[in-house]
Amino acid sequence: MYPTAFTGQERKVELKGQGYFEVAQNARQPFVVKVNDMQVQVLGTSFDIMAYPDEKRLTPR
Asked: I need a surface site. Which of 21, 25, 40, 43 has the fewest CB within 10 A?
C-alpha cells in the first residue's frame, strides 16, 4: 500500500515481498523503499526488488 500523493521531503514506502517501481525523476524529493533494516534511495528510474521474509538476501534488479 502506498499513498496517492507524497508530501514532505521524500517519497517513502515500505516493502515486504516483491515490488516493481517506476519512479519519476525528482531530485528534491528522493524515492525511498524501506526493506527490513535496509533502505534503497533513487532519484528517478525503474527497478524491481524481491524481499521475501524467507529469502537469505535482498535482490534488486
From this structure: 25
